[in-house]
Amino acid sequence: MKEHFEIIILLGRPASGKSEVIDYFKKTPIPERLKRFHINGFEEIDDFPMLWTWFEEDAILEKIMHKPRFHTDSDGYFLHHYQWNLLIERISLEYEKKLRDKAYADNMTTLIEFSRGSEHGGYETAFRSLSDDILEKACVLYIDVSYEESLRKNRRRSNPNRPDSILEHGLPDHKLERLYKEVDWESFKGNDPEFLHFSGHKIPYAALKNMPEVTDDPQKLGPALEDCLTKLWNIKNKK
Predict the structure, then answer these.
(1) Concatenated DSSP letters for 165-210?
(2) For 204-230, what is each residue's pLDDT tens digit?
(3) In a domain, 124, yes or no
(4) What's the chain's Rg over C-alpha atoms?
(5) How many domains does the chain have?
(6) Torsions phi, psi of 222, nearest 5?
(7) 227 occurs within a structural domain
(8) Any domain includes 222
């Protein structure tokens, strides 16, 4: 039996603390990380860099090449609703490419990160575009914050000089409200306190409560993550 998670899908509202969790893992030496969190060497698949590339391409098309925008309208909203699902299909493709290295799954944990609001289909729709291979291997860690807390932290982290930064990007208030005020996590997870039942798969999950905030303080975050991921590891082993 492997001593590490193969795949952790990290979910939560924007600015809920997902990126801070990954940053904490990066700063933890592998032997300690494996012992405390069951995370080996790891790689991330995050849809934010993918969608940010679309924004940059549209800016180049419009401002430099004087051509029509291809992905988004002038307010920065996707032209087509299915683009949210395209991003998840891209995540599945990126994972499939990693498996070309036959030793990858034996030595690595894959962290898949994204947010989804009910306005663009929620987690129920997003998970339909994840491959069966991912759904079969994955465990889910949900970072649980209210919309109000997401709004507060989104304002705090937003750096207009680094809009492409994983740790410093932010959304205008009106976009955050439209896209992420309503989320379907509660209905998506259902009544089972340990497993998500989705499309014939039984996916272990755990939630990290981030109110009051723990992701801003490594002294609090480490123990909170250890408790949560130990619980998740034990649920995984039940499966």
Answers:
(1) -TTT----HHHHHHHHSS--HHHHHTT-SSEEEETTEEEEEEEEE-
(2) 999 999 999 999 999 999 999 999 999
(3) yes
(4) 18
(5) 1
(6) -55, -55
(7) yes
(8) yes
Domain that holds residue 161: 7-238
Strands in 7-12's sheet, in edge-to-edge order, are: 41-46, 108-114, 7-12, 138-144, 201-209, 195-198
CA-closest candidate to residue 39, choices 124, 129, 141, 117: 141
Q: Is residue 1 part of a domain?
A: no
Residues 126-139, mean pLDDT to the nearest whole number = 98
**Which residue in 101, 11, 4, 95 sits closest to 45, CA to CA?**
95
**pLDDT tens, residue by residue, 185-211:** 999 999 999 999 999 999 999 999 999
DSSP bridge pairs for 201: 198
Least confident of 131-135, 143-147, 161-165, 207-211: 161-165
Between the CA of residue 234 and those of 70, 137, 143, 237, what are the distances in Å?
46, 15, 19, 5
To the question of pTM greater than 0.90 for the whole model, the response is yes
Distances (CA, A) of 133 to 55, 68, 77, 138, 151: 30, 38, 31, 8, 34
Q: What is the CATH number of the domain that holds 24?
A: 3.40.50.300
Over range 108-123, report the average pLDDT: 97
